[in-house]
Amino acid sequence: MRADHPVPAGGGALPAVAYVSDALPGIRRRRVGRGFAYYDAEGRLIRDAAEIRRIRALAIPPAWTEVWICPSADGHIQATGRDARGRKQYRYHARFRESRDSNKYAHILDFAAALPALRARVKTAMSARGLGRDKVIATVVHLLDTTLVRVGNRDYARANKSFGLTTLRSRHVAVEGSTLRFDFKGKSGKIWRLKLWDRRVANIVRACQDLPGQDLFRYLDEEGAPHSVTSGDVNAWLREATGAEITAKDFRTWAGTVLACMAFAELSAEAEHKPTRKNLARAIAAVAAKLGNTPAICRKCYVHPEVMEAYLGGTPPFTLEAIAAAVDGDLPPEEAAALAFLKKRLRRTATSRRAAA
What we know:
This protein is an alpha+beta fold.
């Protein structure tokens, strides 16, 4: 099978995987007794033991339907299928996952660098009169930045009755004076109960609640017609405001990394502290609780791996004293310290790789 083109695997240290599509002919499975038999694109039963081991190692859930399996061991997508809810799911090649994660964390430095100007843009937009599109979307972005709540997805809200910022209903927020109380079920059933004191946000949310319709965040177009804000609106606004491929999820990835740096700094300040995996797990659990994730997902998706590697290597990302000494007029001290650490650490890692090449 020929792939369209190779996909580089992070940093050039690993061989490339091949870009594939499940629109191409692939391997299909058929249930046989308590297991499955596998058939190639020509409908022939696959008997090769090594190929069957590769397929089984993908751990494709038995409940998946419309299963497609890549006939090449080097395809960046190894399998696709539909889960019990009819949602399309993927199994990716391990090298592709590593490359994707590496690129994601490299991108987070660009996000941190863009934050000061983005926050200034948000502040200006929120100060505008009325309930225009720019103002209401900027308010959602402000809440992404300050509450760490997910942006939300309409399909997910309909299927799971769980909510994010763009899918909140007016009933999910109570406003009294300058106080806002959020109470809703988020992804994976997590109950979010947040209390904020912010007169500017309270006034905007109260005005949104006065508009017709159940959705909380709605804006008025030039003709005075109301429209609900979607996650697509938010991501498009972020790209336009920054000129970069920034998305709503970047707020949680950056926050997870900064919170982990803080947690490691606090642990390192304890008497007789040792950088053990048990203590790392303690710190990640604390960060996960703030993000509303499981520790496993938090560690895999929301904390830069260099932060954890530095801690286990006996060098915490920074100390509490370093936070107090951090000087960056555009970022809060903890964010400035985290960004400075990552830049220094990544430069050192890049130098080591060049020396080893």
